[in-house]
Amino acid sequence: MQIHDFSEKSSILNTFVSEIRSIEIQNDRMRFRRNIERIGEILCYEMSKILSSGSISIETPLGNSELIVPKDDIVICSILRAGLPFHNGILNYFDKAENAFISAYRHHLNNTDFEIIVEYIASPNLENKTLLLVDPMLATGQSLALTYDALTSHGIPKQIHILSVIGADAGVEYIKDKFPKNTHLWIAAIDKDLNDKGYIVPGLGDAGDLSFGKKLKN
């Protein structure tokens, strides 16, 4: 797996990451969602540079212009519900992409143990397409691995790109062996730790709750 960690360089991306982490700013849900969306836009712009490309000729009022543009057939797959603002940011740039959605949530067995439950999937044919797996928080990596396993029933993509906002070292290590070797991970920041409940530390909290409000616990 090739890892593209953008926290290693200074850019406006780090400004948006700092705002979604800040307890003084993140309680503004609209701003939180918009920052997640903007992070998605930046990551997919960077990712677009390595997609398959081809030349097109565009007629302008004064002549013809030759341009090199991405040519991949893209499917964007979000893990509900936290992935929705992130998904929107990516769809803003790949507006002709097909879309898939899957539910994967934590079912807590007790205060520390949980299992990932996948209940719903809606996906087009993935055969020989470029799959973008979109999950803002890469904590343990289990939900991403289970999502990929579930999607394989809809075809085998030719290329996989995982896009995340914040991950943990343990989660990144976990998914390395769960995906094809030519998979790319595009991520805004990687933190060192997980707490005993499997949440990223320092992280930012629950991205779904911060985007849409608190939910009843499973």
Provide an overview of this structure.
There is one protein chain. This protein is α/β, with parallel strands linked by helices and 218 residues long. The protein has a single domain (2-52, 72-212), classed as 3-Layer(aba) Sandwich (Rossmann fold). 29% of the residues lie in helices and 35% in strands. The strands form three sheets. Strands 1, 4, 5, 6, 7, 8, 9 and 10 form an eight-stranded mixed beta sheet that branches. The chain has a two-stranded antiparallel ribbon with strand order 2-3. The protein has a two-stranded antiparallel ribbon with strand order 11-12. A hairpin with a 5-residue loop joins strand 11 and strand 12 (200-201). Helix 1 runs antiparallel to helix 2 (29-48) and helix 2 crosses helix 3. The two termini are 33 Å apart.
Attribute tags:
Rossmann fold; alpha/beta; two-stranded antiparallel ribbon; globular; 218 residues
Give me a quick take on this structure.
29% of the residues lie in helices and 35% in strands. The chain has helices at 12-21, 29-48, 84-93, 142-151, 169-176, 207-212; strands at 2-5, 53-60, 63-70, 74-80, 98-108, 114-122, 130-134, 137-138, 159-168, 184-191, 193-194, 200-201.
| CATH fold type | Rossmann fold
Approximate shape = globular
Class based on secondary structure composition and strand pairing: alpha/beta
Q: Termini, distance in Å?
A: 33 Å
Query: Helical content, roughly?
Result: 25-40%
* CATH architecture tag: 3-Layer(aba) Sandwich
Please tally the β strands and state the result: 12
Q: Give me the strand/helix succession.
A: EHHEEEHEEEEHEHEEEH
Main sheet attributes: strand count, strand direction, barrel closure: 8 strands, mixed
Strand content: 25-35%
Quickly count the domains.
1
Number of helices: 6
